[in-house]
């Protein structure tokens, strides 16, 4: 499941920002944890990390940020667990 989340995020950014270059990229994948971070030249940045809480449930936290079409900086900080996705938007 974690690979699907990471892949979906990376593909969405890649298709939406064809002109952006990767400035920073890091990933670490283990059987019971993962962490990734990337930053693009167009001021998009994301990081996410998760740990396997029990044999079936992941505890994930992360954030991403970007500049919207009106030039406003948007940051989303979130957690995800067996109860769902819990975002907090910071403008």
TrEMBL record:
GO terms for cellular component: chitin-based extracellular matrix. Pfam families: Chitin_bind_4 (PF00379). Keywords: Cuticle, Signal. The keyword Signal applies. InterPro entries: Cuticle_Struct_Prot, Insect_cuticle. Residues 1-16 form the signal peptide. This is Larval cuticle protein 9.
